[in-house]
Amino acid sequence: MKKQLVLVAGLAVLAAPAFASKARLAALGESTNGSFYINDNRNIFLNASEVLNHKDLVSYEWGTAGAADTDGASNAEGGLYRAHGNMVYGVQFGRNLSFNTEASAAADIIANSDDVLQATNALDLFIGGDAGIKWGVQLTYASAEDDAFASTSGAADDESAEASVMDLRVGVSQGQWAAYLAYGITGKTEADENEAEINRKSPLEIGASWKWDAYTAFAQYSSVKYDVEVAALDESTESSSMLVGVGRQDKLNDKATLFTKVSYTTSKTDTEDIGGSDDEEKAIPVVVGMEFDAASWLALRASISQNVIINEEETGGDKSTKQNTTDINTGATLKFGDLSVDGLIGTTGNNGATANTESGVLSTDRLMTRVSMTYRF
After folding, report:
1. Is CATH 2.60.40 what the domain over 2-376 is classified as, yes or no?
2. Domain boundaries along the sequence of the chain
3. pTM higher than 0.85, yes or no?
4. Residue 96: is its pLDDT beyond 50?
5. 3-state helix, strand, coil in the chain (%, to 5)
C-alpha cells in the first residue's frame, strides 16, 4: 500500500483541479443532483445556468447501467461540456431519472406491484449563454420498448410494453441570485396484456437561492401526480415537497473548508379513491461537512447529518419519530493536475465483503465506491 501511495504522489501534478462528482456531494451530505451552496459541476442538474460555470470538461461516473444509484451500486453515466464563444453546449449519457422510481412507487402503492417497464438510455442536452444574465436550458429524454415484457410477479408475462419520458429544465443566475423551473413534458409507461398504464401529470419543480457573504439561503418546491390504471382499477397518487434552508462555507485555513447547512423539509403523499392512508414527513436536518487538502495530490472530506427538533413521519394518522437519522459519509479525491478521481470511502464490509454499508472499515482492496473521473481542458 505504501508503494502505491508513493507512486500516486510521484505521478501527481501539483496543480489542483476543481472538485466535481456525485461522490464529492454525497460525502458532503448533499444530493448527487446538485447543491444550492457548494460549487460542483453536478449543480447543472439543479439549475441549468450552472453549465456556464462548468464548461470545457468531460466527466465519467463509474457504475452499472440501470442501477438504482446507491453509494454501493452506482449508476453509470458521463458527459461532455464545451464552450464556443459566449455559449456552452453539453450532453450527458445514462443519468438515473426520478420518473422510473416514482412510477414504480405509484404502481406499488395502488396496485401492490412495482412491475413497470422503465425508460432507459437517458440523454440530457444542454445549452447555455451569457447575455448579462446567465441562462441555461436542459432537455431530457429516455424511452424503452419490449414486445416480450415479463413482470417479476408473473401476473402477465410476454406482453407488449413501452415507456417514455421527456423533461425540460431552465435556469437563470446573476451575481448573488439564481432561480430555476423544471417541468415534465411527458411521462408514461404501459403494458398491453393486463391493461396497465401509468401517466405522470403536471410534474413541477421551482427553486431559488440568494448569496450574501458566506451564506446562501435557498428554497425549493415540487409536486407531481401519477394516474394508475390496471384492468378495472383507476386510481391516482399525488405528492409534494418543500425545502427551505441556509448553508454557509468557512475557509478555516489554506487547506480546510467547513460546510454547514440547516434546513426545514416537508413532504406529503395522498392516495385517492382507494381508502389508502396519506403519508407525511417533517424534519429539520443539520449537516456539518469538511474538505481538507491533505497533500498536493490528495483531498479528504467527510460530513455528519442528523434531524433535530422536528423529526416525524405520519402514516394513516399515526405519528412516529424517524429512527436513526444520524449519517456519516467520507470521501477522497486523487488529483493529477487537471484530472481528478473521486470516490467514497468506508462503504464496504469487513475483509472486502460484497455488502456496501457504512461499516467504518477502511479496506485497502476496495478503497473507493462511487468512483468518478473528471478532466478539465
Report:
1. no
2. 2-376
3. yes
4. yes
5. 10, 55, 30
